[in-house]
Please model this.
Amino acid sequence: MSIRDLITMALRNLWKRKLRTFLTVLGVIIGTTSIVVMVSIGIGMNESFQQQIEQWGSLQVVEVYGENDGGMMVESSSSKKPKKQQPLDAKAIDTFRKMKYVELVTPIVQSYDFKLVDGKFVNECNFIAMEPAAMEALGYKVEEGRALTAEDEEGIIIGRAVIDGFYNPKMSWQMQQQSKPPELNVMEDKILITIDHQYGTSDADKSVKAMKTPVLGVMPDEGMNGYSVILPLKQMEKLQKQKEDYYKKKDSTYKGDRTKKKGVYEQVSVKVNDINKVQEVQQQIKDMGFRTSSLTEELETMKETTKMLRMMLGAIGAVSLVVAAIGITNTMVMAIYERTREIGIMKVIGASLRDVKLLFLTEAAFIGFVGGVLGCVTSFLMSKIVNVFAAQQASEMTSSIPLWLYLASIGFATAIGVLSGYLPAKRAMKLSALTAIKTE
Model:
């Protein structure tokens, strides 16, 4: 019997019993829809977590932290004894640069010791200094202007939230709350950086000279980037030197910040060229005796936290498909009882046992395939409904169905149909031709 004959006979037999076929296919549709939607919610949650974390920075960056409290102990998975925290100096940075998969390394210096000034308005914010060429590589985005480049020795990139946070220091807190945020154009305005936290008030120190700086770009209001100001390391060094000179001039006994050692950094960012190697590089740095963190690590932690929920969702969907498989088996068994005489005639006129078996398996496969395809259509609609509801409730439990999930669900439903029809097909093979013909 040819494949064409098998398909034609299978479709004709299923069409003869339209209602039963429809109800069986409906069971597969419900099962496929359930498992696809449930799995898609787990995928959607992972994607939501990833998008949320990507707003904080690049997933390919490992943050390395310097010694704290005079040399704390750091746990190392490759050593039974904890290692002493190593100094994060030029030697350590050079070691990181030579590591496999490392694309870029830059020291990070953060400070809240300075104020931004735009006319009569000021704002205190987080200043982050780095090698200028590293800004884009570390995941900082610019929506206006440009990012820092290797040639920049000065110039700042301002976060959108910093611009919105400017205020008039001569106004009381109550008046500031009632007034509208100032409309500023930082790309064209004269922007200053000062070490005087009383700047703009009657207590301001007239001897402090604010440093003029160009604004090269503006970062979007996403994550922590919107609340920060990015600048080159050399410019930060000038500002810190101005601060040190000011305090020494003000107090002859001032010896500088004793918590910071010269040539030793508090933080270094390491960019890995392959996101799949981030945790490997991070572990190698840990084994050297450094404290580390990465957004990839945070993402994996969040995924692990919801792993049980995703398994439960998948199991609920699988139960529906198992029920559908029982329905297919029942349909095929009933078909054998109803078509016993037909099976006998097929055998008498020359149909082989293999042909009989393939006929019933083809019918079962069609039920699974059609149910899987229609289940994908309904799961697409259900996914849209879930996402609309999640958007209204501001929930992270969204649904995302990649192409591979559609294809896998159709293939799985077809396979379930074939497996469900296997035992009934074997039963049809074993029927005696003479006995089957005599059956009314």
Remarks:
- The mean pLDDT is 82.
- Residues 353-393 form the longest helix (41 residues).
